[in-house]
User: Which sequence fits this backbone?
């Protein structure tokens, strides 16, 4: 009610540009002049049951963490990396005494663990990254990468190296995020005059996400 229509329009445009989707349980602004940071620790937490070694094998993760850490340094903050691993327990790191916020990645193994996680972070700001299908309830804020930008970067790399033909392999043919990524890649490759071969793996019980 306090914002003008022009301000609302600018905010919506910024959200669309940044691929930002606010969660339905979004907290309101803090009042007074309290500092935004207490511990100056921000935790990147992988909720999926995988080891740090497995997580860091994702090609995008090391670069993503490096960029996050670079921005946090500008705010004189530290990045803590934590994960569920095989313990199936929410780490003690996730509380307001140890960190000021959580960057969430991955999907919980079961509903019981997810409920436990939500209880732990009830008084912390949480933002979910990764695949849009991980947070089916849309309870948290989201910032997802743009598949269109990813496609443009991939095609730009192929052009710089004078590749005229390329193959794209989709291991989850019916996954909405993967489908969107492939679609944008096909469009960018066609505009660049790159001949594209597409391979898709039919959806089965073993590769559903």
Assistant:
């Amino acid at each position: 009610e306090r914002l003008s229509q022009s301000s609302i329009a600018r905010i919506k445009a910024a959200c669309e540009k940044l691929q930002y989707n606010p969660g339905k349980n979004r907290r309101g602004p803090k009042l007074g002049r309290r500092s935004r940071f207490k511990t100056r620790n921000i935790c990147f937490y992988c909720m999926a049951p995988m080891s740090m070694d497995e997580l860091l094998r994702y090609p995008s993760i090391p670069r993503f963490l490096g960029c996050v850490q670079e921005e946090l340094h500008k705010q004189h903050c530290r990045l803590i990396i934590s994960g569920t691993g095989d313990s199936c327990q929410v780490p003690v790191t996730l509380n307001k005494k140890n960190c000021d916020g959580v960057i969430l990645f991955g999907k919980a193994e079961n509903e019981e663990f997810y409920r436990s996680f939500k209880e732990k972070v009830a008084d912390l700001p949480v933002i979910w990254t990764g695949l849009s299908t991980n947070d089916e309830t849309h309870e948290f804020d989201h910032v997802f990468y743009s598949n269109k930008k990813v496609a443009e970067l991939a095609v730009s790399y192929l052009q710089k190296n004078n590749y005229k033909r390329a193959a794209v392999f989709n291991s989850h043919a019916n996954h909405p995020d993967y489908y969107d990524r492939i679609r944008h890649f096909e469009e960018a490759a066609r505009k660049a005059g790159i001949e594209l071969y597409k391979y898709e793996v039919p959806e089965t019980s073993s590769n559903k996400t």
